[in-house]
Structures are given as C-alpha cells and as structure tokens.
Amino acid sequence: xxxxxxxxxxxxxxxxxxxxxxxxxxxxxxxxxxxxxxxxxxxxxxxxxxxxxxxxxxxxxxxxxxxxxxxxxxxxxxxxxxxxxxxxxxxxxxxxxxxxxxxxxxxxxxxxxxxxxxxxxxxxxxxxxxxxxxxxxxxxxxxxxxxxxxxxxxxxxxxxxxxxxxxxxxxxxxxxxxxxxxxxxxxxxxxxxxxxxxxxxxxxxxxxxxxxxxxxxxxxxxxxxxxxxxxxxxxxxxxxxxxxxxxxxxxxxxxxxxxxxxxxxxxxxxxxxxxxxxxxxxxxxxxxxxxxxxxxxxxxxxxxxxxxxxxxxxxxxxxxxxxxxxxxxxxxxxxxxxxxxxxxxxxxxxxxxxxxxxxxxxxxxxxxxxxxxxxxxxxxxxxxxxxxxxxxxxxxxxxxxxxxxxxxxxxxxxxxxxxxxxxxxxxxxxxxxxxxxxxxxxxxxxxxxxxxxxxxxxxxxxxxxxxxxxxxx
Length: 473
Prior knowledge:
Helix content is 61%, strand content 1%. The chain has 473 residues and is mostly helical. It folds into two domains: 2-316, no CATH class; 321-469, no CATH class. It has helices at 10-15, 21-31, 45-57, 78-91, 100-113, 116-129, 133-143, 149-164, 176-195, 199-202, 222-228, 233-236, 242-252, 254-262, 269-286, 297-312, 321-334, 345-353, 355-360, 369-389, 398-415, 426-438, 447-458, 464-469, and strands spanning 2-4, 314-316. Residues 149-367 form the ER-bound oxygenase mpaB/mpaB'/Rubber oxygenase catalytic domain. It comes from Paenacidovorax monticola. InterPro entries: Lcp-like, MPAB/Lcp_cat_dom. One of its GO terms (molecular function) is oxidoreductase activity.
C-alpha cells in the first residue's frame, strides 16, 4: 500500500476521492451488490453481466451506431439494460465548448506526424504513465503488464487511432466516441471490482480498508484478481480516480507535444493548443472534470509537474514501476532488427522523459557503450544537420526521418501484426491499416528524404498492409 513521504497537494489530494459518477452509477446498476462472503465465482450473475456488456461493446462499431442504440434485456435484465442504454445516451454527447475547427486541425497534425507518434507513445507517453505509483499498481494488477506489455500498448492504440483519425470525434462514420465510451465503462468496472462495490459506499468515513483475499485458483480470472487485491481508500483514494485519469490524458496530449519539442520538431502555438483541445474533448467524454484540463502548454507543464510531484511523494512496496519500465523497453527492443540498436529505446526514453522518470522506472542503469555512443552520435549529428540545412530548406528534418523509421518498425511489429490484430471492428481495423500504409511517405519531407526513410523502414521490417492482405481469414 501507499505511504506518504511528503506534504501532498491539497487540491489534487481531493481529486483522488473523485471518480466518474455517470460511469460508476451505470456499473453499480448493472452489477448490483457483491456477496459479502467473498468472491462468488466466475459464473456469478455479476460476472455474466460484465461478459454481456463486453459482448455488447461489439455493437458500438462507430459513432452513428450509438445514436439510437438500446441494450437488450435478455441477459442483463431490465434494470441493467436500461442503465446501459441511459449511459450511452448521456455519455456520447460532446461538450458545448468543443471546437470543430481545432479538432480537425489536431486530426491533421496526427496524420502528418504519422509513425513518429508511435515513438512518442512508446518512449514518452507510456513511460510517463507509469510514474504515479498508485496508477502503476492498478495497471499492474489489471493487466499483469510485465507479462502482457503488448496488451497495454495495443489497448492504448485501439483508442488513439479511432480518436485521432479524421472524423473520429464528430463524424457519424468516425469511431472515436464509441471507443472512448468502452474505455470509460471499463474503468468503472475495474473500480467496482477493486472496491467490491460502488465508490460511494467505499468513501464512507467509517469503512475500513478492504483486505486482500486469498486466491485459490491456479490461474485466477482478471475479475477475481481485481476483486481479491484489497484497497485502502483512506490512503490511496479511489482506483482510476480523477487525478490519475487527468494525468493519463496529459501523457497523450502534453507529453506528445513536449516530445516533439525535444526532438526539435515543435509545433506553432496554435497547433499545440488545438491538439490539447481535441484531447480535452476526449477527456470530457471519458468523464474527466474540466478543472483538471490544460489549455496551453504552460498550463499543461505546471499541472503535469504538480501531479508528478504529488505522485513521487508516495512510496509503494513493492514498487511495480521498474518491472513495468523494463517490460516496455524489452517489447521495443524485440521490435528492432539491428542488435546494436536494440538498447536504443532506453536512452531515447531518458532523453524524452528526463532523469527523474528514468530513475522511477529503473532506466538509469548503465547500458552497452556501443549502443550509447550510437544513440548520442546519431541524435547530435541529426540535430546539427537539421539546424544548418533548415536555413535553406525549412521543412528538412533528419531527426524526423530517423524517428519515423524507428516508429514504423514498432507499428509493423507490435501494432499491426496480422496474428494479433487490434481489438477493433473489422471496418475500423481496415481504416487503421489504410492510414498506417499511408504513412510510408512523409508529407512534410522532400522526395529524396522519403527515399532514405524507405530504405531504413524496409531494412528488417515488413509492410503491415501486405501482411494483412495475405493473412488467412
């Protein structure tokens, strides 16, 4: 459990006791009360209803499918079905402050940066996501991420792609809102399982910490693992609380933009603020309070620093973060075909995230000298060439070409494998495939630089589109 080692941030401390009233009330209506004697078994009514909700997620294929959707009562029962129907009707509505032009501008930015965004997801957003000890602990329990790192990566991509592809948030044929509503309800389900009931009950002042339960099964289900883990609301707040969700949101918008800056590819202020805005709309649909959203990079930087300082004031034993960091780095190393370059994700993550995050994740250890020299030589040389050449060709960026090439390897090996397709509806999966294949050429680079990138991406890689086309159905 978590123990405080410094004075907490009062405002953020309060947000740890807030979660998602709509999502939590929906899941409470669907599941009802858990038995008091302990885990009721995988065939309990609550587990059958969770399984049915997961099955019904398959009907949310795009935003248009949500418009008049109603949950059947065959398995859920009338009350639970009505709860799910009410949730879809309320949660799909975008906030009145959503700016369509800014959203479309953010979509274009995502498409323009293409495979580069994958590097920033792997080496910046996800590592920063593991920094808060309580959040890392819940992620560890929910996914056993040391053994299933790709699951976390692929689940994240299954939301990011639909959200940021053209029309994802506002068009009927887009699928961003549909994917967000699934993620939001999954968060509420995790909370309900860990707390063994609704958060409102867990917040009662007199309620003692929930003890961990013995697990007799050799391979317990995810539901049983979450139910049995134990939780101290007084010390840890609610699992997947408002602060943690807002922090995660910042890793997708602020940390992405910060990564571009650190690679020498920073965007104009209006573009940065459009990207922040689009993800704030995502945050609203996820149930994040507007007071925890940042609208400028300065606001985002300050809020992110406060959240990390609050998180680092907590000590947790055993600390899950180094194992999560090591598993993430190994997943990336496995996707790199050149032996000398396999350790490169470690110094790249250090460079993008900074020393404190590297230390939190156990990435501050010594690495092979040859790999370290390769990374810093290439980085400094690329940044130096970019600085000089841009005086003549303003759109030139060798740094962008190299990181895009590395990103394309990760996309092909981890995200677009035909043996482990993203968990998306078939039509949406085909759209994602088309988008990724469209990233083979950089729209911001001259033709000769695209030819250089083609040579890099074909060295030991493969085409996800071709693999999918030849895959057995």
